[in-house]
Amino acid sequence: MTCDDFQLRLTAYSLGELDQDELQAARDHVAGCNDCASRALLDRQLTALVRGSAVAAPAATRAAVLAAVRAEAGRADAPRPVRRRHWIALAAALLAAAAVVAAALLVVPAPDPGSPLAAAWSSYHARGKNGLGSPTEAQADRLFAVLGPASRTPDLADFGLRKDGWEARDLAGHLAAVAEYRDAEGGRVTLMRWRGDLPPMPSGSDGDELAAYRWGRHTSYWWRAEGVVWCLVGTIDQERLYKIAEHLGGESEEGAPG
Amino acid sequence: MDLEGFEAATVPHMNALYDAALRLAGDHATAQDLTQETYLRALRSFGTFQPGSNSRAWLLRIQYNLFCTQYRRGRRMPLIWLDEGEADPSLDLPSHEPGPEEQTVRELDREAVRRAIARLPEDFRMAVTLVDINGLTCAEAATVMDVPRGTILSRLHRARRRLEAILMPELGRVQADDL
Question: Which of A19, A82, B12, B113 has the lowest tally of Cβ within 10 angstroms?
């Protein structure tokens, strides 16, 4: 084996992935070639460097994943029916235990491809690493023309959320206003609004009611006010997101143009 | 549903899944989302898992497919590494007992290594993540990424040469210490 041959096989040699004949030839070569022996050492050290950079899952992540898995397993064993709530009932529900809220959520594995649910899900995942930017003036004007006051980005500071940007997006063929928020712990909330119909809910309902979907640990709340669909998605705790949905739901009805 | 069996087969690999997710997605929040979605998908398809096969490779394949189909679009290169302070120190990092070389380099700047890996093209980065970090064989990594084994070897080879170039000062320091 020449030095060139060895260099070509260096990675496979370091990984122990050479077949027996090649391995023996490589060993023989290294035994008599200081340059290639140094290269092999360097490759082992590089592997050790790379391996040493492994990152363990944070304890909070482990806990969240395990909780989601156990909840999912529980639901699979004992599926629960969907529950819908009217706005009046929402206020009462807030006073009830958070468990009641949790039980009311419909759990689905993923939205159907091509549906507005899937479009919202994709939009939720499509943000950049630094959050959203801001629309051009022309885009902002167009959003206002289409959505009216619903195009504005609501202030959610009272819920511990700071604005992290907003932009205009095409969402399932609709011009949508998308706003993103973050809390101090890095939790993320995305608010999407577009003019159209509320996506079909599993219960077959539409209208100005709050519907909830959950994808994994993502909870999303949906409602429609004055022809505008609102979708609130987030990774923050469910009860807090629910309060925000209720707050925005009331505001969207009061603030819509007559 | 065999929750106990599922957890026994998969929970020991959560560090590996999170590490791979972080290297793919580049930020903690998305990595956690991706890890959790992977586990939920794995739970739903646990009936298809072959007992005795490599459950880490099975999970990583689910995760990689999930990333490619639902997370990749619009993503930019990861360069954000969050504080690891909340990691549970009682939990082992994925794979491998530390050897003499690994002991030697532990004092090196792990952050520099992570950033160097993050600069690799996604296919190279994933090959390094699967084989060098998570201990999969090239054949297992090939199954995860749905490419021939030779492609994995080629990507690893090229990735290592790039990492060498970036990390040469650190590697040189290790070699000098060895003399």
Answer: A19
Using a CB-CB cut-off of 8 Å, the residues of chain B touching A7 are none
- pLDDT (tens digit per residue) in A38-77: 888 888 888 888 888 888 898 888 888 888 888 888 776 6
For B105, the closest of A10, A52, A125 (CB atoms) is A52
Does A77 lie at the interface with B, CB-CB under 8 angstroms? yes
- Interval B69-100: pLDDT, tens: 877 655 544 433 333 333 333 333 334 444 54
Domain range for A13 is 3-51
Q: Which residues contact B140 (CB under 8 A, 6 or more apart)?
A: B54, B57, B130
Q: Are residues A130 and A245 in the same domain?
A: yes
ipTM exceeding 0.85, yes/no: no
Q: Round to whole Å and give the CA distance between A102 and A116.
A: 23
How is the beta sheet containing A211-215 ordered, strand by strand? A106-107, A211-215, A218-225, A228-234, A188-195, A174-182, A162-171
Q: Rounded to two decimals, what is the model's pTM?
A: 0.53
Q: Which pLDDT belongs to residue A108?
A: 39
Torsion angle of C-alpha atoms B119, B124, B129, B133, degrees rounded to 10? -90
Query: Tens digits of per-residue pLDDT, A189-219?
Result: 899 998 888 776 554 334 446 777 776 667 7
Is the domain B1-75 a CATH 1.10.1740.10 member? yes
Q: What is the pLDDT of residue B79?
A: 37
B102/A51 touch (CB, cutoff 8 Å), yes or no: yes
Question: If contacts are CB pairs under 8 Å, which of residues 104-143 in chain B contact chain A?
Answer: 104-106, 108, 110, 113-114, 117, 128, 131-133, 137-138
What CATH number is given for B99-179 in this structure? 1.10.10.10
Please check the confidence at residue B16 and state whether its pLDDT lies above 90: yes
Contacts of A60 in chain B (CB under 8 A): 86
- Predicted local confidence at residue B144, as pLDDT: 92
Q: Are B33 and A128 an interchain contact pair (Cβ–Cβ within 8 Å)?
A: no
Q: Which residues of A touch B37 (CB under 8 A)?
A: 215-216
Q: Is residue A248 part of a domain?
A: yes
